[in-house]
Design brief:
Length: 418
C-alpha cells in the first residue's frame, strides 16, 4: 500500500483560502497603486542570496533564523565537511532590504538618482510561529536611495500612512526615534561602544517587560549607576515629538548633535501638516528596531487592535558601501502585510465597490447544445464589469450556493433541460 502523504502545510506556513486571497489581492492593489502615485518603481529580487551576504552582521537577530540551502550536485560533500560552511552556499532571504541593497549596488548605473523602489515578495525566517508571525510571509517595502535629507523619511511616512488610510485603518500611530539619539543616550549613561548593542536589545523589550523588567536585566550585566543614569533619561518624556525631543535634547547637552532632534521635529511638522490619513506621530525614545543596519531615523507602525508593531523602517546609510565600497544614503519603510491581513480577516472585512459576482449553475440535465448560448451570455455580463462563474450544478445545490456565497457570489442562475 502506498504511503499516505501529509496534507497539512509545513509548520509556520499556511494555505491561503479564496476569501483571504481575494482580500490579499485587494490590499496589494491598493499598496501598488498608492506607492506608484508617489513615484515608487516596482522591482523584484531572487528569493535566495549568497549566505555570506545574509550573515554579514546587518540583520540582527534575524540572522539566526535563516533557512540555509545545501550545495548541490558535485559541490556537495557531506561526508568530508568539517563545518557548516563546507555544505551551505545560499540562504532564503529573511527580509527585502538586504536583497534590495544588493540589487541597487549591482544595477546602480542603470537606475535614476535618487531611486525610489517598491518591492513586494515572500521572505522566510525559521521563527517560532505565533499570532501574526509565520515562517513564510509577505513583505511590502518602499525605499529611497540617494536622498541624504529627511525628505526621504517624510515621503516614506506619508506614502505608507496614505496606503493604510486607503485600506481603512484609522487612529494608528507612527512611532519615531533615531539611532544616533540612542547612541548619545548610551554615551551619557557611561556604557561603552561595545555594550550599546546589548543595551539596546534589552531596551527594546520595554513594551513587553516594562521599565522595571528592563532595569532588572540591565543591572544583571552593567553597573547600577550607569543603568540609573540611562533610565533617568526617560523621565518626563512625553509622546509629542516637538516637546519630547526638546526635553531629551536638554538632558543630553554635550552628548548630542542638535541636528538629530531638529530633524525629528522637521519630519513631524511636515508629516502632520501634509498627512492624508487619520494617525498621530509619537516620539518614542525606547524604539530601537532590531536590524543592525540602521544608522539614523527609525520608525514603526502601531495599530491599537493588534497590540504590537505592524511595520517599520528607518535609515541605513552604510549598507550600500558594504557592497560597493562607497556609502549611499538609503531609507526604507516596510508594511506588516500579514498582520494587516490578519486584522482585516478578524474584522470580517468586506471589499468595497467590488464587481458583482454571479454564478451560473449548469444542471446535468442541461443539453450540451445550450452551452454556447450560456457562454455568450456570461461573456456579455463580464464585458459589463461583472464576475461570472460557470460551473456544474451539484446534487446538493443548497450547500454549493452556501459555499459560493462565502466567496462573495450574490446571484445565481440555474440551467436545466427546459
Amino acid at each position: 500500500m502506498a504511503q499516505t502523504l501529509k496534507k497539512k502545510p509545513v509548520n509556520g506556513m499556511k494555505d491561503i483560502l479564496p476569501r483571504e486571497m481575494e482580500i490579499r489581492d485587494y490590499v496589494t492593489g491598493i499598496i501598488k497603486d498608492t506607492y506608484r502615485s508617489f513615484g515608487f518603481t516596482p522591482i523584484a529580487t531572487p528569493c535566495m542570496e549568497e549566505i555570506g551576504n545574509l550573515q554579514s552582521n546587518q540583520g540582527g537577530e534575524n540572522e539566526k533564523l535563516i533557512f540555509k540551502v545545501l550545495k548541490r550536485g558535485e559541490k556537495l560533500h557531506i561526508a568530508e565537511a568539517e563545518s557548516e560552511a563546507d555544505v551551505v552556499d545560499y540562504g532564503l532571504r529573511y527580509d527585502l532590504t538586504l536583497p534590495l541593497t544588493r540589487f541597487y549596488s549591482n544595477n546602480i548605473n542603470d537606475l535614476p538618482n535618487p531611486f525610489k523602489a517598491l518591492q513586494i515578495g515572500n521572505v522566510w525566517r525559521a521563527d517560532r510561529p505565533q499570532r501574526g508571525r509565520f515562517r513564510q510571509f509577505t513583505q511590502c517595502d518602499i525605499d529611497i536611495f540617494g536622498e541624504p535629507t529627511n525628505l526621504a523619511e517624510i515621503e516614506l511616512i506619508l506614502a505608507t500612512t496614505a496606503t493604510l488610510g486607503k485600506i481603512g485603518f484609522k487612529g494608528f500611530e507612527i512611532r519615531i526615534n533615531d539611532r544616533q539619539l540612542l547612541n548619545a543616550m548610551a554615551r551619557y549613561a557611561g556604557f561603552s561602544d561595545q555594550d550599546t548593542d546589548e543595551v539596546f536589545v534589552i531596551l527594546d523589550k520595554m513594551d513587553k517587560i516594562g521599565l522595571d523588567g528592563v532595569k532588572e536585566e540591565l543591572c544583571e550585566k552593567y553597573e547600577a549607576s550607569s543603568v540609573d543614569r540611562f533610565l533617568s533619561l526617560f523621565d518626563d518624556i512625553k509622546g509629542n515629538v516637538q516637546e519630547g525631543t526638546k526635553v531629551l535634547e536638554k538632558k543630553l547637552e554635550g552628548f548630542l548633535d542638535g541636528s538629530v532632534t531638529e530633524s525629528l521635529r522637521q519630519i513631524d511638522a511636515a508629516v502632520s501638516d501634509a498627512k492624508e490619513a487619520d494617525f498621530e506621530m509619537v516620539f518614542d525614545p525606547t524604539l530601537v528596531r532590531g536590524m543592525g543596519y540602521y544608522t539614523g531615523t527609525i520608525f514603526e507602525i502601531a495599530i491599537p487592535e493588534f497590540g504590537g508593531s505592524c511595520g517599520g523602517g528607518g535609515r541605513y546609510d552604510r549598507m550600500v558601501g558594504r557592497f560597493t565600497g562607497h556609502d549611499v544614503s538609503a531609507c526604507g519603510f516596510s508594511i506588516g502585510f500579514e498582520r494587516i491581513i490578519m486584522l482585516l480577516m478578524e474584522h470580517d472585512f468586506k471589499i468595497p465597490d467590488r464587481a458583482k459576482k454571479v454564478a451560473y449553475l449548469i444542471d446535468k440535465s442541461c443539453p450540451a447544445d445550450k452551452y454556447a448560448d450560456i457562454m455568450k451570455e456570461a461573456s456579455a455580463l463580464r464585458a459589463g464589469g461583472e464576475v461570472v462563474l460557470v460551473v456544474r450544478r451539484n446534487k446538493n445545490a443548497k450547500f454549493q450556493k452556501e459555499q459560493l456565497k462565502k466567496q462573495g457570489y450574490e446571484e445565481f442562475k440555474e440551467f436545466f433541460n427546459d
